Amino acid sequence: MENEFQEGKEEVIQAWYMDDSEEDQRLPHHREPKQFVSIDRLAELGIVSWRLNANDYENDEALKKIREARGYNYMDICDICPEKLPNYEAKIKSFFEEHLHTDEEIRYCVAGSGYFDVRDEKDQWIRIAVKKGGMIVLPAGIYHRFTLDTDNYIKALRLFVGEPVWTPYNRPHDHLPARREYVDAFIKKPTVSQAVEAL
Ligand code: KMT
Ligand code: NI
Questions:
Q1: CA nearest to 13, candidates 49, 47, 56
Q2: Which fold has domain 9-198?
């Protein structure tokens, strides 16, 4: 799935640990000093990402390949601005409630930008800033939330396997199978003896 746009992925997907100030959610919320999180670290939490050519998303072969490989047969566009998103204020509020889904949340930013916040293994917030050309997959069962940044605009493609289910399960929903499976796959560390056995 290599393509020329994969290079420089850090230009469109950047992540960092958040401070815990109560200031405006649309601000970056860097820690002091800044504490960045690599794309490889995101992968350890099950977060997959790509950089694609957002100027050509309608004909992009690289996007087609990803959709075929991962079964993303559904796709629509979500334009987040007061004029185009019905119930804008309520939606903005609910996007920022910590929640999980029983399926992947797949978003491809084709204009504007936004923040996807995810919890790490220790329940610390990692802020993932996604700009034009950045595509990310949040795995089923990960606790997360979304906010616009201070530029106040994102246009994102939403992809899905089959009929989309957008239902958010606000935290806590630890007993859902999707959550248990996520914890088993990405949060539970193998015990020392299991690690030794695996050698
Ligand atoms: C979600 O599920 O949080 C969203 O769809 C947010 C907008 S997608 C950029
Ligand atoms: Ni979500």
A1: 49
A2: Jelly Rolls (2.60.120)
Listed by start position, the domains of the chain span 9-198
- Report which ligand 1 atom has the smallest distance to the Cα of 166: 2
Indicate the pTM of the whole model: 0.94
Cross-strand bridge partners of residue 37: 15
- Each residue's pLDDT tens digit, 64-77: 999 999 999 999 99
Using CA atoms, how far residue 15 sits from 59, 102, 139, in Å, is 29, 24, 16
Question: From the CB of 131, is ligand 1 less than 6 Å away?
Answer: no
Atom from ligand 1 closest to the CA of residue 116: 3
Q: Which residues neighbour ligand 2 (ion) by CB within 5 Å?
A: 105
Whether 101 has a binding-site annotation, put simply, is yes
pLDDT in tens, 127-185: 999 999 999 999 999 999 999 999 999 999 999 999 999 999 999 999 999 999 999 99
Rounded to the nearest 5 degrees, what angle is found at the Cα of 116, between the Cα atoms of 4 and 60?
30
Q: Is 157 in the pocket of ligand 1 (CB under 6 A)?
A: no
Is 163 within 8 Å of 74 (Cβ atoms)?
Answer: yes
